[in-house]
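ok, trying the design again with the full structure, not the truncated one.
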């Protein structure tokens, strides 16, 4: 039985520095434990982040990772995932993956069994099936129910604009209107409808890896890809600097490559908390109310996190396991 202790991060402005280290977004403690146990039993940092994210795919963490969550406009669940080796800067990513539950496993297969970096859509699923992943229906009673309720509520909320019929009142099919209206994007995203797992592992020798896995955004337009599988947006890892992983409104966040920015700030000497804050601040300049958070860790095992204070996010929770704790600890940071 895992015990979780809540420790406010202001008590440790730089975080504890203790390697090895596992850190992940949101209070997904079983994922942290899976990654930590993998490291403890001799697995690599890549194995650790893969196992950690895979645990969330099995557990359907908050319904926002793995099968049976976030049905799109047609009711289908599709998955995005990415894994990055900070030693070699190799990456494997999949987006809009259909029918395969183990998206992070497929991302790793893209990295290790092809010369490519990123596969998307139906063809990514065919690749996965050829690599031995089992094709299954990702729909569950829960996702069917979410979809049915959404249809009953006139397809609200949705992510359409500049179309007829008026998407704020009606379901599609939609057609474009000729004159584009002012973009007054209202975020339909909040702590309940939207999160993802982003994970970093660093071993004693300073090898760094990062990974993400998500089922994206509830009621997304089919084909939509979030920030999670985008290299430098959802996560980034470089064993000469550190790693970062982001969570939140991917449609906005991917425009700023926040994970890459944070890693480069750490390379330039910023401590992880400062690097995380700089990445959030960059987005805030343009989208003051965006929903999002980021975790950062450097190669000495210092870590931090930051989040944007938004109507639905005032405190961000994340998990840490390191040799000082030897068990997953729940951490929190106040958003700014
Ligand atoms: C996305 N950022 O698809 C991802 C997943 C998520 O919090 O929910 N992040 O936008």
């Amino acid at each position: 039985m895992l015990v979780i202790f809540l420790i406010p991060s202001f008590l440790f402005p730089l975080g504890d520095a203790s390697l090895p280290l596992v850190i992940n977004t949101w209070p997904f403690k079983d994922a942290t434990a899976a990654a930590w146990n993998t490291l403890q039993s001799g697995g690599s940092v890549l194995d650790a982040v893969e196992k950690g994210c895979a645990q969330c795919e099995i557990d359907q963490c908050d319904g926002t990772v793995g099968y049976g969550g976030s049905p799109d406009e047609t009711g289908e669940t599709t998955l995005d995932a990415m894994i990055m080796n900070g030693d070699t800067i190799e990456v494997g990513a999949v987006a809009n993956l259909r029918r395969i539950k183990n998206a992070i496993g497929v991302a790793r297969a893209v990295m290790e069994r092809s010369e490519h970096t990123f596969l998307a859509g139906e063809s990514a699923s065919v690749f996965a099936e050829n690599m031995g992943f089992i094709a299954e229906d990702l729909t569950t009673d829960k996702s069917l129910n979410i979809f049915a309720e959404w249809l009953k509520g006139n397809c609200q909320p949705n992510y359409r604009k500049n179309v007829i019929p008026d998407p704020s009142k009606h379901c599609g099919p939609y057609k474009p209107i000729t004159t584009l209206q002012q973009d007054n994007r209202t975020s339909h995203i909040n702590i309940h409808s939207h999160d993802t797992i982003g994970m970093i592992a660093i071993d004693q020798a300073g090898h760094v890896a990062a990974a993400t896995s998500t089922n994206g955004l509830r009621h997304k337009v089919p084909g939509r890809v979030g920030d999670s599988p985008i290299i430098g947006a959802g996560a980034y890892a470089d064993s000469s600097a550190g790693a970062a992983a982001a969570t939140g409104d991917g449609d906005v966040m991917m425009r700023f490559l926040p994970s890459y920015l944070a890693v480069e700030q750490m390379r330039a000497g910023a401590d992880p908390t400062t690097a995380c804050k700089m990445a959030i601040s960059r987005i805030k300049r343009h989208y003051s109310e965006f929903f999002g958070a980021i975790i950062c860790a450097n190669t000495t095992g210092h870590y931090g996190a930051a989040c944007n204070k938004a109507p639905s996010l005032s405190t961000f929770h994340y998990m840490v396991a390191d040799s000082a704790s030897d068990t997953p600890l729940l951490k929190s940071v106040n958003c700014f």
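Keeping the full-length input from now on. The pocket of N-hydroxy-L-asparagine is lined by residues 64, 194-196, 214, 216-217, 226-228, 247-248, 250 (CB under 6 Å).
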